UniProtKB/TrEMBL annotation:
Protein name: Dihydrolipoamide dehydrogenase
Pfam families: Pyr_redox_2 (PF07992), Pyr_redox_dim (PF02852)
Keywords: FAD, Flavoprotein, NAD, Nucleotide-binding, Oxidoreductase
Record keyword Nucleotide-binding present: yes
Residue stretches making up the Pyridine nucleotide-disulphide oxidoreductase dimerisation domain: 358-459
Binding site for FAD: 52, 138-140, 310
Cofactor: FAD
Enzyme class, broadest EC rank: oxidoreductase
GO MF, one annotated term: flavin adenine dinucleotide binding
Cofactor detail note: Binds 1 FAD per subunit.
Annotated binding of NAD(+), by residue: 178-185, 268
Length: 468
């Protein structure tokens, strides 16, 4: 059994853990970064990167098909799509990520980490002592729904998001359980690649956390791509179809049955904390790690245990986790050097954006993008909605269909949130994020003149609708 000492031990080597370790090292500390899977984590190999690589060709094809004069765009070549995706994920090889970790002055450690005491982490028998802090960045794992027969299905028939983003075989028929971000994106991607896709969801429309107009637009887009959408439909039972050769799944819903070749479970995720040894420090395994705005885990004395990313349950998005990780790394370094931790909102040590300005994009066709509030939440707040119908959008595509909603604080005339839906609107989001974070007065935004003819002209229409 080896004994090793570092200022910081980071558990979880995805983008969040990498950022936490890098900021700690930049602040003058030593750091070990531990992971039992691939360095680069979920986002690099099984989530954001491969999913957008699968989605972008289909979205581009839709853009072509909306534009007269460029032909019908033909269809997708699945093999070429898969090859491009694999180029971005390096075929699952994390050697490049490990090299980056080492170049940043961080010690990479492979193995399963458990917290075994105060400032102590054991990795496959070796004990790591953290002089300053342990930072947990283990992300999240798939949450399986309670569906009769699901656990008995052979593994080759049951897909999770990892299978959906890495498979290089197009199933003839695919059932997707769940109408959230993963469910809608993967339903669209695989329909474009040639699958007959069936999307089951408990709600009336996809993306239940978004305004109804966004979910309705995405549902229409999915149907246009051939996806068969089953709103307010619970899957009651699944079972393997005997004698089906390569394997098939029978789905029972509402008294009827449907046979498919694969079933994708996309019903949500949960923090990956079940096997971290949290009980050693008095915390409940399996749940999220509640943290303050500096990333310090609540309920643990001496302020040595920190966490960032999905594992905290605050804002389960890669970019938001990296933001929190940068703050945690800086906070740990400042505390180690005896410097004051700045507790002011919007400071370098305080994760204020988690409460006010979390941006997210759903890369379906149409795209959905939002930041901040999506609904008016109380007195002094006004929702302003309008269609995205400007010269820029008309030139972007024939029969362009888009809509936005802005939530305005009418007492201060500043934006509290924006939601967009439409083709090619993801690139509008950062302007909205800056406006929300910066609390830019609407009368000042009046002087931020949008270039003509772009979709950004809709900002002028929004201000006019508000009454400026």
């Amino acid at each position: 059994m080896a004994q090793r000492g570092y200022d910081v031990v980071v558990i979880g080597a995805g983008p969040v853990g990498e950022n936490a370790a890098a900021r700690a090292v930049a602040g003058g500390l030593t750091a070990a970064l531990v992971d039992h899977e691939r360095f680069g984590g979920e986002c690099s190999y099984w989530a954001c990167i491969p999913s957008k690589a699968l989605l972008r060709p289909g979205n581009l094809l839709s853009d072509v098909q909306r534009m007269p004069g460029v032909g019908d765009g033909g269809g997708l070549d699945p093999a070429a799509v898969f090859a491009r995706r694999d180029a971005f994920t390096h075929g699952g090889d994390d050697e490049g990520q490990v090299e980056w970790v080492q170049s940043a002055g961080i010690e990479p450690v492979r193995g399963h980490a458990r917290i075994t005491g105060e400032r102590e982490v054991t990795v496959d028998g070796d004990v790591f002592h953290a002089r300053q802090a342990v930072i947990v960045c283990t992300g999240s794992v798939v949450r399986m729904p309670s569906v009769d027969g699901l656990e008995e299905l052979p593994g080759e028939l049951l897909w999770t998001s990892r299978d959906a983003t890495t498979s290089s075989t197009v199933p003839g028929r695919l059932a997707v359980l769940g109408g959230g971000v993963v469910g809608t994106e993967m339903a669209q991607a695989w329909a474009r690649l040639g699958s007959e896709v069936h999307l089951f969801m408990k709600g009336a429309r996809p993306l239940p956390g978004y305004p109804a107009f966004a979910g309705d637009a995405v549902a229409d887009g999915l149907r246009c791509r051939g996806v068969r959408v089953y709103p307010e439909t619970a899957v009651e039972r699944v079972s393997e179809v005997e004698g089906s050769g390569s394997g098939a799944v029978r789905i029972t819903h509402g008294g009827t049955t449907l046979d498919v070749d694969r079933i994708l479970v996309a019903t949500g995720r949960r923090p990956a904390t079940s096997d971290l040894g949290l009980d050693v420090v008095g915390l409940e395994p399996g749940g999220s790690l509640p943290v303050d705005d500096h990333g310090c885990v609540s309920g643990v004395d001496a302020r040595w245990l920190y966490a960032a990313g999905d594992v905290t349950g605050r804002a389960p998005l890669t970019h938001q986790g990296k933001y929190a990780a940068r703050i945690v790394g800086d906070v740990v370094a400042a505390a180690a050097l005896g410097d004051a931790v700045n507790a002011s909102p919007w400071s370098e040590h305080t994760a204020t954006a988690d409460h006010h300005a979390v941006p997210q994009v759903v890369f379906t066709d149409p795209e959905v993008a939002s930041v901040g509030l999506r609904e008016a939440a109380g007195p002094g707040q006004r929702a302003v909605e309008l269609d995205i119908a400007v010269a820029g959008s008309a030139l972007q595509a024939d029969d362009y269909q888009g809509r936005l909603r802005a939530i305005v604080d009418t007492r201060r005339d500043v934006l509290l949130g924006m939601t967009f839906v439409g083709p090619d609107i993801a690139e509008l989001l950062h302007a909205a994020t800056i406006a929300v974070v910066g609390e830019v007065p609407l009368h000042r935004l009046w002087h931020a003149v949008p270039a003509f003819p772009t979709i950004s002209e809709v900002w002028l229409r929004l201000l006019e609708e508000y009454g400026l």
